[in-house]
Amino acid sequence: RQWVRQVYKLYAIVHHLRWIMQKDLLGQDVFLIGPPGPLRRSIAMQYLELTKREVEYIALSRDTTETDLKQRREIRDGSAFYLDQCAVRAATEGRILVLEGLEKAERNVLPVLNNLLENREMQLEDGRFLMSAERYDKLLQSHTKSELDAWKIVRVSEDFRVIALGLPVPKYSGNPLDPPLRSRFQARDVYHLPFKDHLQLLYSIGSNISTERISQLLSFATTLCSQESFTLGLPDFPLDSLSAAVQILDSFPMMSVQHVVDRLYPYNVFLGKEGRTAVKDALKRFELQDSESHLLPQRITKVERAHGNKPFKADVTVQIGEKEVTFQVPAGTGLLKKHSRSDTFIKTSSHNQLLAEMMQSHMVKDMCLIGGKGCGKTVIAKEFADILGYSIEPIMLYQVSKLCFKYDLKYNIQVLILCIYSLPLSVILKTAVGLHI
Asked: For the ATPase dynein-related AAA domain, which residue ranges apply (predicted)?
């Protein structure tokens, strides 16, 4: 939330919002295209908040079908009927339809929206026909509304708009848009924040960090997003997650910068020898390599429920070097684990350090544990959940999901990553949703 509030004030974001508003006034649908990250979605949601518009949102995937966009047939009390889905609800209620991940949808799914985008018309499975507001109003001059209702003609609101979000294909994996569908949108390239604006944002977050250090960190990240780095086969650095890294360093200014960089960009896990050498050279060039004066978190010394009217917060104290730092993290509704002894989990020094790092990451963002089979990812996640009073909601990732996540991990690293073991033989994703992990 802090990131969104700060980003809203930047000139580059205001420029994007102004462009979307111009297209909205012209009655045109827009397509925000750019590198992976939350920036495009954040801009779309900021525009909806500014204009006080209602939204219908759908995240597209390879499993998305026509029924997810138009109508879904359901059976209730022995009777079959159709339920309007996001595209139909947005069209009839005058909302803005946000389609995220256009590159992930199968090629035969999105063309069902072609006529709705171009002419504001669509034939529905229940026999109704969506008609543009202009044509509907003309018919209303010569026919009554009851007649149009009998003909099952439904008016599409003149306020209906579509904001599509997607990645450029190629550079990134996915399905390119069909030319007929692509021509329905007014496209805008939403790249990362300009260097100056991003630097200003990070300065406002990291008041306890030297400006030189923040500038070096941003310069390093920008270098890994350059065309030269892409030619070397290096995945993009998650620039949008730099704010999370700076928040951690702001609370722990004595901590190793390179160690935090490793969480955002675990190059030792997914890069070969040549790629690792290139990243290490960039770290050395911007003076971000570890020195003896930098420290790492050692263990959690105390966890207690936050005081005041904060039922879902906990105060965590972590030892780093000879100091103890207390900070606040989200927590569940269960009892916090006060004692460190357990019959099912025997802590080692590496476990203590990992749990302390997980607490740091949990302070600012979701996290992903990477490691080989049987190295203890699930046990660590359960111990972490017990400490903060969370209940666990496991989701098994099968072959298709693994492939999708491999793509997201390589090109859309928006979580803080903690490596237990160097070989990425399996990936377990634990994402904080509500009060569960």
From this structure: 29-185
